[in-house]
Amino acid sequence: MSSFGKLCSIFSSAVGTLAISWAVLSCTQMHAQSVNSLVIGQNPTLNPKGQLNQSLIFAAPPPPPDIGEPGQRAEAGSRGCGGGNKQLTALMPVYSNSQLIFGATIASHPTFWFYIPYKPPSPGKFVLQDKDGKLVYQTDVTLPQTPRVISFSLPQTIAPLEIGKRYHWFFKIYCKAQQPSAFVEGWIQRNSLNPALNSQLEKATPRERVALYAANGIWFEALTTAGELHRRDPKETSWATLLQAVGLNDLANEPITP
């Protein structure tokens, strides 16, 4: 059975339950279709005053070579649950050659981010599997009453993601009767944090940490740190710049749930 088929079985049985282009300090605008070209960034460093050298871009890690199903960043088609102009979207990079939806993390229990463009009739469903399709975690997700970005973290009560292992995640919203469900999916891999980068992160401000994470290809922590900054100060630019760097310009000004 394919991964999608396994997921459908899980959903059916569970019905009861950024350097970052902070930058784009260069004049190049990064789009989702050009993620493969983002690996050319230099690693950021702190100068003697402890300030970040920011002539940087987001450096996507090389994609795993053996992923069979690349994923889906936005729901297919234009119908969705709401029929509006915007779609259910996972806030993730896309690799142009394969349309792979993939991001790295260093967290044992990372935070996932999605844009919800409509008021769904029921909760969302999030599922995490290992690369062989074995269920790791699933949960219902309470969705907002108005269009906005949401985030949720894997709970500390489940086993931590293993370093070096790849996981397949799915997020689904059940629409009204006679409507197809909205569905996105992708991949996440937990990597180890090298001591040199860890030392830089300990000295950095939150804004500098966004750039450090992004320059080292650590998407999930770059986005989460930028999101926390944006929640505290909507005028802070890290969030918008990071989304623009992966072609999600149209979501940069959408509100974020508290």
Structure description:
The protein has helices at 3-13, 195-203, 206-215, 219-232, 238-245; strands spanning 89-90, 94-95, 100-105, 111-116, 124-130, 135-141, 148-153, 166-173, 182-190. It has 258 residues and is α+β, with helices and mostly antiparallel strands. The protein has one domain (3-251): Immunoglobulin-like. The protein has a six-stranded mixed beta sheet. Strands 1-4-7 form a three-stranded antiparallel beta sheet, covered by helices on one side.
List the helices and strands and how they pair.
Elements: H1 3-13, E1 89-90, E2 94-95, E3 100-105, E4 111-116, E5 124-130, E6 135-141, E7 148-153, E8 166-173, E9 182-190, H2 195-203, H3 206-215, H4 219-232, H5 238-245
Parallel strand pairs: 3-9
Antiparallel strand pairs: 1-4, 2-3, 4-7, 5-6, 5-8, 8-9
Helix pairs in contact: 3-4, 4-5
In short:
With 258 residues, the protein is α+β, with helices and mostly antiparallel strands. Helices cover 20% and strands 21% of the residues. The N and C termini lie far apart (39 Å).
